[in-house]
Amino acid sequence: MDIEWLTRREDVENAASEVILNSPPRLPTRPLKGATSRNPTYLLIINPGSTSTKVAVFDGSAAADRDNKVAEEGIRHDAHDLAQFDNVADSLEFRLTAINEWLESTKIDMSQIKAVVGRGAPVKPLAGGSYAISEQMLSDLRTMKYSNHASNLGAIIAHHFGQKLGVPCFISDPITVDNFTDIARVSGIPEIERKCRVHALNIKEVCRREAAKIGKKLEEVNYVCAHMGGGVSVAALEGGRVVDVNDALLGMGPFSPDRAGALPVGPLVKLCFSGKFTEKEMIDKLSRKSGLVAYIGAADLRECERMIRAGDEKALLYFNAMAYQIAKEIGQAAVVLRGKYEAIVLTGGMAKSQRLVDEISKYIGFLGKVIVVGGEFEMEALAAAGMRYLSGMEKLKEY
């Protein structure tokens, strides 16, 4: 079995060791020394999360690479402060204040920012690529037409700064990137259609980097890619398009640290009509209070591993069960691609766990080369999209 562990920098490829452990750098809270140029072309990147807002300024000049951060910060928001907002959109001004304070602290010349890129939220089904932020998109996000997700603010905040600075603003590869074929949409009953909701940003960025290492473009290769974080997306990428994937938020696929994944239909129907849960409570249970946290009381994989090392057999069982389910989903994606792919890629925060990677690999080793890229690269993916736009390599699509 061929397993390859990679760091963020490509120059480690010539390292002597057969297995290379991932070691991403810490996020700086101040501008990086030496990261500026005489005539800088900066990109402002916005990535809101449920309890934080990641903000970064990248050097978007032609000579820079997508990892060239000028400054980056993960702005933490106190849970008590966020509790005052009934909906995600209501926290806009609160987050804008925090972002502005951070930007002022960096002493960055804002006139050098030439584009603003925000994380794409669940919106209507879209083909992959970058989309200009329109009034219709903003309306869908403000009214929570498709979800009440923290990422709804990605485009809204990006639009705010785009207007303020007089520069283009857009999103790239939102969660609802959809290149499903008609056959992939069929569920089994006419009333339900399979949806494409996927960690598209990280999956496509990691696979784009892997394709570059073999001298190809993402559009020229196929990959099976499993993003393993709070949610688990196992995608079949064909020519750079996500042609099939489990619904990582509330659908099929493996259970995760806090999501249920696929469930036996009969018992689920009975549970829904048991009178114990409202519709909202059931959705909350399946999307936030299931998986490892329901079984062992811990949603943090590191805590689960600590429990295992302490001899907790229950923690070991459910850890291995999650790995088993992820491996099964990988096998399914391999079938979708008829076995024609460059490699199986394991990425996301949980891919940093050697125990999890080893357990999954017991099942999938016979399917081909396995590449492990631990961590998430959403900020880099958004920066790369910005650089493609500034260089003229990619045009913005209309929403």
Explained architecture:
This protein is α/β, with parallel strands linked by helices and 399 residues long. It folds into two domains: 24-176 and 381-399, Nucleotidyltransferase, domain 5; 180-368, 2-Layer Sandwich (Nucleotidyltransferase, domain 5). The chain contains 13 helices and twelve strands. The protein has a six-stranded mixed beta sheet, with helices on both faces. A six-stranded mixed beta sheet has the order 4-3-2-5-7-6, sandwiched between helices. Helix 3 crosses helix 4 (152-165) and helix 11 (313-336) packs across helix 12. The radius of gyration is 21 Å and the shape is globular.
Give a quick precis of the structure.
The protein is 35% helix and 17% strand.
Furnish the topology, listing elements before pairings.
Layout: E1 3-5, E2 42-48, E3 52-59, E4 69-76, H1 79-82, H2 92-106, E5 113-119, E6 130-132, H3 135-142, H4 152-165, E7 169-172, H5 182-185, H6 200-213, E8 222-228, E9 232-238, E10 241-245, H7 265-272, H8 279-288, H9 291-296, H10 301-309, H11 313-336, E11 344-348, H12 354-364, E12 370-374, H13 378-390
Parallel strand pairs: 1-12, 2-5, 5-7, 8-11, 11-12
Antiparallel strand pairs: 2-3, 3-4, 6-7, 8-9, 9-10
Helix pairs in contact: 3-4, 6-13, 10-11, 11-12
